[in-house]
Amino acid sequence: MPIHINKTRKKYSKYIWQRNENVPLETDVTTITLQSPGATYAMAVTDDGYLLHLHWGAKVTGDLSYILFGKNPYTLAENLRDKGTFMDSVPLEFPCHGTGDYREPCIMVRDKNNASTVDLKFKGARVSPGKPKLDGLPATFSRFAVTTAEGSPGCSASACSPDCETVIITLEDDYLKLRAELIYTVFNKLDVITRSVKLTNFSEDTIYIARVLSACVDFDRSDFDMLTANGSWARERIPCRSPLHRGKQSIDSVKGESSHQSNPFFALLSHNADEDTGEAYGFNLCYSGDFFAQSEVTQHSCTRAVMGLNPFDFSWKLEPGETFTAPECVMVYSSEGLGQMSRTFHDLYRNNLIRSEWNKKLRPVLINNWEATYFNFDTDKLIAIAREAANRGIEMLVLDDGWFGHRDSDNSSLGDWVTYEKKLPGGLSKLVSEVNALGMKFGLWFEPEMVSPDSNLYRTHPEWAIHIEGRELTQSRGQYVLDFSNPAVRENIKAQMKAILDAANIEYIKWDMNRQLTEIASTYLPVERQRELRHRYVLGVYELMEWLVTAYPHILLENCSGGGARFDPGMLYFSPQIWCSDDTDAIERLKIQYGTSLCYPASCIGSHVSDCPNHTVGRITPFNTRGNVAMVGTFGYELDITKISEEDREKIPAQIAQYKKYAHIMRDGDQYRLSPGFHGISPVTMNYDAFIFVTKDKTEALLTVTQTLARPNYPPLRLRLRGLNPEAQYKTSGGEVYSGSALIQCGIEVPLSGDFDSKQVYFSKL
Ligand code: GLA
Predict the structure, then answer these.
(1) C-alpha to C-alpha distance for 6 and 553, rounded to whole angstroms
(2) 749 phi and psi, to 5 degrees?
(3) What b/e string do you get for 654-665 counting C-beta neighbours within 10 Å, with b at 16 or more?
(4) Which domain holds residue 61?
(5) How far, in Å, from the CA of 562 to the mean position of ligand 1?
(6) Cβ neighbours for 586, distance < 8 A, ≥ 6 positions apart
(7) Residues in CB range of 106: below 8 A, 6 or more apart
(8) Which of 103, 503, 675, 766 is close enough to 729 for a disulfide, judged by CB 3.0 to 4.6 Å?
(9) Which of 11-25, 99-113, 530-544, 623-637 has the lowest mean pLDDT?
């Protein structure tokens, strides 16, 4: 069993307010240990009922409680006259605010007296196979799922053999009558722990939650680097690595989306960690809104790492009997560097997070009209693109922004999801039939969460935009954000989308979200719940997405947010792919896709071949390089195929064949990054980027190497490969034969010529 509860001590708990579950709680607990193949996560309960952290890291066996119950016991009984010192130094699993721990807390409230203190004590723990669903929130699930009565992934011991096990640890504050259930899941084959928290108010008074973070790890060391993935529009998720220093280093979002600026990911790395060696602790929040993550080096040179919902501008009214569920934090341990950390995230997300039937399937090669036409298109132009695309082997036309209302620019019509007849006479259904008649599928862009001031929806329901009555409302991209906390708003958008989807054969949707939240207030929520809107907005988005993927399970859904502002695990639960960035330049994409690969698999990275000079950076790169880079993701085209050079057009069929031959290796295989990494280095000055994908059975591999700027008078690059079977012989696409051990230890030369040149080398096991 991966989870072990040790009950060697006297019975601890006396009193539990309510217990309506069938499974009895284990109440005489000393330690709780979660074991995965290469890692151990261990906790202990003190005599005083505090849940303390013992260890997270390399696998250890045996009773670890000596760490806490040794010569200097971490028990309050020994420290009663100085509880403050005790609280401020013990490693805590779910630190509370107000009783002497002055490090970052996981929980704060405003109780009936407007006091903020919480003091949670252990009441019991319950182990069960599989993993429970989180109310209204995306989360990882057991792969051996049975459909429960609620139609959700879940698992019971009798029905299946789950790939994970869950312990729910119940803590309670006797004063507040507030219960916190800490939910930990450990996976059998991956070094992953997931954590989330459920708070229940058992008192007779309203309690306001002022903050609730999902995870805290109190490390007993501080010799770490913190790795984050930061950026901006068109340069998302650029790796940023810096040593921890005394005090706090944090990342967050306050924009209502996970954001371009900071991805909800960070890792703590031992100073020596590189791709293959050293320790890496990765944290990723399964959430698409405002998040907070922080590493804090304490007075005792320990590190408190926390992650969860951003407490900034947050408050949640918890009425008697109500429960609040915090999002899931995914935590990965690797003793083999960053590469292994990433591969663990990739496996978890492909197996236990992405639900779409497209997850492990070859996606249709699409052509998107955005960079081809922007708003300037009509049926004739689209059909011309589709016809030429079909002739070259492209399988789906995606009609991007501008097909609805009277939208000729980004100044109007969001919220009016009816066909723009001037551009598309006869409606979408006519266009879709014509595209289908060419042998192509059809995909469509929506931006469901938005409304333009110039729209029928806004004219009819101005109160549905997020705004403050009487205060000027900030426009961004000329649009406002709809109040998705309001069920009537969601129903309206749902009905409009349904009408479009039911009237035409639409097989793909790009769900976009192009602005951040401002003047955050809701006409739907009562005054005392206004500060819930940031979170309720995200919950509303999830609810509409859940409807979409349930009602139209075969539609391929691609998420997007002004490029990659919502590239997070929350979105992956609904869509198997996410548009990575509006920057489609192949060289810039090397860096963006490198940073994205830190925790997200190539199978979900939306990536297209676009025209040159590139629309964002003006760079001219070879067509072949653009193809090689776009293949590390959900390959497609975003250009006017009727206008590019005949030379490039003629390359498309072979490029598609190449993609289809290799797609399974990158979609389902293991990724090994081979370049020094873009930690603070620009893609152009780094000289080259390289990575290899290897199938799980190690019989096939694909190496991609891209030169950025050529350098004079250097010997050719010889790359030492990773992931291959050292005992096997491999034949390359060029016909040469190498032993796996030689490829790993001595490497292979990849001749590259000129700026932006790129090569793929395919290896098959003999
Ligand atoms: C966002 C997306 C683009 C495109 C435009 C349309 O910027 O990231 O791909 O869909 O919106 O307005």
Answers:
(1) 44
(2) -80, 135
(3) ebbebbeebbbb
(4) 1-91
(5) 5
(6) 621, 625, 626, 628, 629, 630, 706, 756, 758
(7) 94, 95, 96, 197, 211, 212, 213, 214, 215, 216, 306, 308
(8) 766
(9) 11-25
Angle at 279 between CA 275 and CA 282, to 5 degrees: 85
Amino acid 706: pLDDT: 96
Query: What are 545-557's pLDDT values in tens digits?
Result: 999 999 999 999 9
Q: 401 C-alpha to center of ligand 1: Å?
A: 7
**What one-character-per-residue DSSP string does 448-484 give?**
TTEE-SSSHHHHH-GGGBS--TTSPPPPBTTBEEB-T
Counting beta carbons within 10 angstroms of the beta carbon of residue 76, is it exposed (0 to 12), middle (13 to 18) or buried (19 or more)? middle
Domain end marker among 91, 117, 136: 91
Phi and psi at residue 392, to the nearest 5°:
-100, 5
Residue 514 beta carbon below 6 angstroms from any ligand 1 atom: yes
Would you state the structure tokens that stand for residue 188, as one six-digit string? 């059998």
Residues 302 and 215 in one domain: yes
Q: Of all protein residues, whose CA lies closest to atom 6 belonging to ligand 1?
A: 401
The verdict on the CB of residue 511 being under 6 Å from ligand 1 is: no
Measured in angstroms, how far is the CA atom of residue 78 from the centroid of ligand 1?
61
Query: pLDDT tens, 701-714?
Result: 999 999 999 988 88
Sign of CA dihedral 449, 450, 456, 461: positive
Report which DSSP code applies to 190.
S
Verify that 175 and 41 share a domain, yes or no.
Answer: no
The residues carrying an active-site annotation are 512, 582
Residue 430 has pLDDT above 70, yes or no: yes
Phi–psi pair at 338, nearest 5 degrees: -65, -35
% the chain with pLDDT above 70:
93
Q: DSSP letter string over 581-608?
A: -S---HHHHHHHHHHHTTTS-GGGEEEE
Q: Is residue 120 part of a domain?
A: yes
* Residue the block writes with tokens 């309670």: 172
What value does the CA radius of gyration of the chain take, rounded to a whole number of Å?
A: 27
Assess whether 249 and 180 both reside in one domain. Answer: yes
CA–CA distance, 212 with 216 (Å, rounded to integer): 11
What are the two backbone dihedrals, phi and then psi, of residue 207, each rounded to the nearest 5 degrees?
A: -120, 130
Q: Is residue 357 part of a domain?
A: no
689, 594 Cβ separation under 8 angstroms: yes
Establish if 98 belongs to a structural domain: no
Q: Is 562 in the pocket of ligand 1 (CB under 6 A)?
A: yes
The answer to whether 656 and 608 are in contact (CB under 8 A) is no
Same domain, 225 and 260: yes
Is there a domain that residue 383 lies in? Answer: no
Mean pLDDT of the region 99-120: 97
The whole-chain average pLDDT of the chain stands at 93
